[in-house]
Design a protein that fits this description.
The structure holds 2 protein chains of 2 kinds. By secondary structure, chain A is an alpha+beta fold. Chain A has a single domain, classed as Alpha-Beta Plaits (2-Layer Sandwich), CATH 3.30.70.20. Chain A is built from 9 helices and 13 strands. In chain A, the strands form 5 sheets. A 4-stranded mixed beta sheet of chain A has the order 11-2-13-12, with helices on one face. In chain A, strands 1-9 form a two-stranded parallel sheet. In chain A, strands 3-5 form a two-stranded antiparallel ribbon. Chain A is elongated. Chain A starts with 11 loop residues before the first helix and ends with a strand. By secondary structure, chain B is an alpha+beta fold. Chain B folds into 2 domains: 44 residues, no CATH class; 114 residues, no CATH class. Chain B is built from 3 helices and 6 strands; from the N terminus they run αβββααβββ. In chain B, the strands form 2 sheets. In chain B, strands 1-5-4 form a 3-stranded mixed beta sheet, with no helix packed on it. In chain B, strands 2-3 form a two-stranded antiparallel sheet. Classes of the chains: A alpha+beta, B alpha+beta. Chains A and B meet through helix 4, strand 4, strand 11 and helix 9 of A and helix 1, strand 4 and strand 6 of B. Strand 4 of chain A pairs antiparallel with strand 6 of chain B.
Chain lengths: 294, 195
Amino acid sequence: MKPKPYPSSMPRRGFLALAGAGLALAGCADGALGDLFRLHYRQLRPADKRRIFERLEREARARTGVAVSIGDPAPLPGVVFAFALNLRVCNGNRRCVEACARENNLPSDPEIRYIRVLESERGAPVLERPNAYYQGRVPADGQRYLPVQCQQCANPPCVKVCPCQATWQEPDGIVVIDYDWCIGCRYCQAACPYHARHFNFARPSVEPDRINPAQAYLSNRLRPVGVVEKCTFCLQRTRRGRYPACLEACPTGARKFGNLNDPESEVRRIVASKPVWVLKQELGTVPRFYYFFA
Amino acid sequence: MRTGSTRGTSLVRAFALGALLGCASGLGCTQPEPSLSRPATSSSATPAATVEVRSPYWPTYPCTQCHEHRPGTANPKPRELRSFHGSRHSLEHGSISGWCYRCHAQPNLDLLVLDDGSTVSFEQSHAQCGSCHGEKLADWRQDIHGQTTGQWNGARVRRTCVYCHDPHRPKIGPMIAEPAPALPRTAPPTPRPRT
């Protein structure tokens, strides 16, 4: 049977010509449609970045009514960040979790929290049967607490599996994500052995009065739906010399942060003088998050 | 290139391995590799930081606004003193509980006394704590113990001991934890019981 011909009012060539013209116009247009054809973050010029950030600021303003400012602090030369955590004093109070949520504009419904505190019985192998859902008075009798977040591994499996290079490791050791490049395949979430990556199944929304307006493009700006996010060692703070929000909130002084290349830094001194260990060392991820007892 | 003190070459090799792995991923990082040779002298200087003294002081400070310079107790033997100020001056501090003059100087109650008999002001109270807790003081001077705020690469502000520890009841008590994370949507409504 002879197949029905295409309607003559829209021949194939005409349709392709129309679509091509439309795409070309969109490429020239300013706005989200125009940025669909932009280059990777690492190839952008400062003027391009500034244009993109201004568009994102406008969109955030329109969506939430809050005047945010999106910056792009560069990695400091010669700096490699590391975290050290004193497990003898951590009592599982979760102030770090809440401070991180506040600083990084994490949504509550559905909930995303970069830090998970694992409670396990003292004396047992630490991660055999942890409980992340404890409540009430801490520390509970006979329990030990272990906060886990992105370890900013020196040999990150998440970076290796990303099919589009939306995530990469910066010179200062922080593994970052370009939320506008991420396609949401969640390979990185599957590859991470520490369950440190979180996916936005729904459009994340934060109460306008809880939004932190001091944002950075690669860290705590308001994310779109369908992208992966994770702890970035608060690069919007740490690349400007400040301590991460979780450290400042910790009431027991368990968290220590600094530059591994600086002999005066507390993390360097901890790694040099205290017995430290890392999680899942046998996997060879070389985490930059050290645990110690002191 | 600055080198710091290291405890063993195996640890330094771990640093070098970490640096090499970071560079081998081809991302163009240029951090200097640590030296593999042991330095001649180890750096024992404490990093520069301003010590943030706890403020405000006790509302009853200075003590001499109410108490005259007392000549001190007639009996210098360490023993439990019955407190006649009520619970405000009670003392639960390990083996010195009850003996106020282990830390408070006599006759000048506006000073603290160290174990060698010398006195320090309340602004140097960390020296007082460190006279028994030397290991903690050494850690505190390197920002390993306690709370440090400010700039990690510049002006650090190190909080003094009494910022967190009440000297008369120094053990940090229990707290109520912030709420637990939300259960996954497919989880049963009750949290997983402890096993």
